[in-house]
Amino acid sequence: MTVELFVLRHGETTWNREGRMQGHLNAPLTELGVEQAVTQRNIMAEQDLSGFCVLSSPSGRAVETAAIALGPLVTEITTDTDLREVGVGEWTGRLRAELIDPTEWQVTADGVLELYDMAPGGEGLAGLEARCARFLARLEGPHVLVTHGITSRMIRALALGHGPNVTLATLSEMPGGQGVVYHVKDGQQKRLS
């Protein structure tokens, strides 16, 4: 994978704040989420985006983040369903604390990653990896991507050569968070903040 990427995660939502599993459903950005998108705009304003295509997940939280963070900087933002968050099936909308005892699991900036693989009727991490691998294989030229926490981790892991069969350990070691931008180029990842 040699395509240059800037990868942004949407800003905090009301469901993020409550600790809910969002998956393909949407929740609005909080005031902090809007501030995080403005921070991303300030980061991206320092980048030369000439020749970059901008793609966003079609989820409202990602589209709103893309509009705030990139709308003033680019002429076109296109949505792509492959950038949606991993589907969490029957656990969509559920509080993470209802599902597991978080003290028994490794908690990352994006929650307990095992939940995304265990969700009944969900996409699972293998399904997410297959979707993200297909997505990356069709990219030509440099791209800015606005996506979600787990999808961002998977895309970056694959772009850095950790596939096929990206492990939970690899995803857990991948940095996450909101209000930051990850730059992936030439097999290296740099967090911009």
From TrEMBL:
One of its GO terms (molecular function) is phosphatase activity. Its EC number is 3.1.3.-. The keyword Hydrolase applies. Substrate binds at residues 9-16, 61. Pfam families: His_Phos_1 (PF00300). InterPro entries: His_Pase_superF_clade-1, His_PPase_superfam, PG/BPGM_mutase_AS, PGM_Phosphatase. Keywords: Hydrolase. PANTHER family: BROAD-SPECIFICITY PHOSPHATASE YOR283W-RELATED. This is Glucosyl-3-phosphoglycerate phosphatase. It comes from Thalassobacter stenotrophicus. The gene is gpgP.
